[in-house]
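Title: Comparing notes on inverse folding

I've been comparing how different people in this forum approach sequence design from structure. To keep things fair, I'm posting one structure and asking everyone to reply with a full sequence. Here's the target:
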């Protein structure tokens, strides 16, 4: 079919395939920047990535695109094409609200800030961090202001919409408000009960090469395709790349291995989602993961619902013993005690699943006020200290490394992302409850190492659905309801107190 006989919708599909190829290169270059690139390469890499971002932005905001979107709406489309067109319009609306000059300035500021953060964090250098971060915040505020006007929503809602379409502060406030009515009491009750239990700590050191071999064995058990991806090391674990070439990273410590192993299990959930997006639609926005809350539901399903399941731990134990030799701490029951230990801590990514929401509520409150202009960057440490004391009874004064510098999100300008983590945990509990109904023998299957029925359920209900449906509709189809906090509450009370609500 030549250009003159293409429908307007088909012309848009061709444009999005072109953008997909450019995004492919940008994704791999970004992974290399985090995992392999030498220090002196950062300025040149930042400029190159900004150039691609600007070019993609110009393609998407060309005047002809608005006309094509309007005309395609009048054409006869099948449901999947209608879903794809809806996503095209969403992307276009967000992009069209931002000038190319802001996109370039924002990309450069974030690359510089994130690169400097890698050395500023271990140095506990908050003042040095502020030099770059204030420019990142300036760009984010301008972005929020422009998106707010274009979408007709509050500024922070506009930022969340980039990661979780349609999410509002009203919804987040309701969810977190409900959490606060029972989570503090649960934390207190679980800690009281666990104070009578003995937890055996694994004794290191743990050779990093052995850790990586273990991680890769577990990834294979979890179905990761190493012909379409790989595992490397970075300052902050992440899953990047593209569906055909997923680039996962983790980080290793010599004195313990749980962080690397369960961080890898977490990222494998992201990787499986990416590797199983509908291949025939790759290059189109409808093939993308539905949202970051849904993406986090996959990583947290793998890490918390499956990874900490007694049956999974029974199969994991021999692999750990094979890697590091026998210790009593490696027995399944000992691992279960270790992995379900509830203890407030400073580091979000190391937090247990009961105290984890407190870390998210803290960040949500601070970054929302930052974006709305109620506070400035210099105010963050004092607010952080106050909320860590209030929520988790921890003293963080003067400890920037394990405080506001611990996450990569703010240096990278990822404002609006944090709520997706807790929503992901809520969705993960909801998916497992639905799997229990659909697969009555699922607990035996896990004990027997038969995970295929779980993969089939996830593939049918989450992975292949991609972005063809809005999030609420996807959840309704998969589980019979939109996001329901009661599933998460039931999960926590059952796992940590043995109570059925």
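Reply #1:
Here's my take.
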């Amino acid at each position: 079919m030549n250009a003159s006989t293409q429908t307007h919708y088909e012309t848009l599909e061709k444009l999005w395939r072109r953008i997909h190829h450019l995004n492919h290169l940008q994704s791999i270059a970004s992974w290399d920047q985090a995992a392999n690139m030498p220090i002196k390469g950062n300025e040149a890499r930042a400029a190159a990535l900004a150039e691609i971002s600007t070019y993609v932005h110009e393609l998407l905001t060309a005047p002809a695109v608005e006309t094509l979107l309007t005309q395609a709406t009048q054409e006869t489309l099948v449901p999947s094409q209608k879903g794809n067109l809806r996503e095209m319009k969403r992307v276009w609306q967000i992009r069209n609200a931002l000038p190319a000059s802001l996109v370039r300035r924002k990309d450069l500021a974030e690359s510089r800030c994130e690169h400097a953060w890698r050395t500023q964090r271990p140095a506990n250098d908050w003042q040095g961090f502020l030099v770059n971060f204030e420019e990142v915040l300036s760009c984010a505020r301008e972005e929020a202001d422009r998106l707010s006007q274009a979408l007709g929503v509050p500024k922070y809602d506009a930022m969340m919409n980039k990661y979780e379409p349609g999410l509002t502060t009203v919804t987040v406030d309701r969810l977190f408000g409900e959490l606060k009515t029972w989570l503090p009491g649960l934390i207190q009750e679980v800690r009281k009960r666990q104070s009578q239990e003995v937890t055996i700590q694994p004794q290191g050191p743990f050779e990093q090469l052995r850790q990586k071999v273990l991680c890769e064995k577990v990834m294979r058990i979890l179905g990761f395709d190493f012909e379409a991806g790989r595992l490397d090391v970075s300052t902050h674990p992440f899953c990047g790349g593209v569906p055909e070439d997923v680039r996962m990273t983790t980080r290793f410590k010599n004195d313990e291995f749980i962080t690397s192993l369960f961080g890898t299990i977490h990222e494998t959930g992201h990787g499986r989602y990416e590797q199983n997006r509908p291949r025939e639609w790759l290059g189109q926005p409808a093939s993308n993961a539905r949202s970051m809350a849904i993406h986090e539901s996959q990583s947290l399903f793998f890490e918390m619902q499956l990874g900490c399941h007694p049956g999974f731990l029974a199969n994991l134990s021999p692999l750990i013993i094979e890697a590091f030799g026998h210790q009593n701490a490696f027995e399944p029951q000992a691992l279960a005690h270790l992995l379900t230990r509830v203890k407030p801590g400073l580091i979000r990514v190391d937090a247990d699943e009961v105290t984890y929401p407190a870390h998210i509520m803290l960040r949500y409150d601070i970054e929302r006020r930052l974006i709305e202009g109620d506070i400035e960057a210099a105010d963050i440490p004092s607010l952080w200290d106050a909320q860590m004391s209030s929520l988790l009874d921890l003293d963080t004064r003067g400890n920037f490394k394990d405080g506001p510098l611990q996450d990569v999100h703010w240096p990278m300008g990822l404002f609006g992302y944090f709520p997706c983590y807790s929503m992901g945990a809520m969705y993960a509990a909801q998916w497992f409850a639905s799997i229990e109904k659909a697969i009555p023998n699922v607990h035996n299957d896990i004990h027997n190492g038969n995970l295929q029925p779980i993969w089939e359920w996830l593939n049918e209900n989450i992975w292949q659905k991609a972005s063809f449906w809005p999030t609420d509709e996807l959840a309704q189809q998969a589980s019979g309801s939109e996001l329901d906090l009661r599933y998460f509450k039931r999960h926590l009370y059952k796992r940590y107190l043995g109570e059925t609500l």
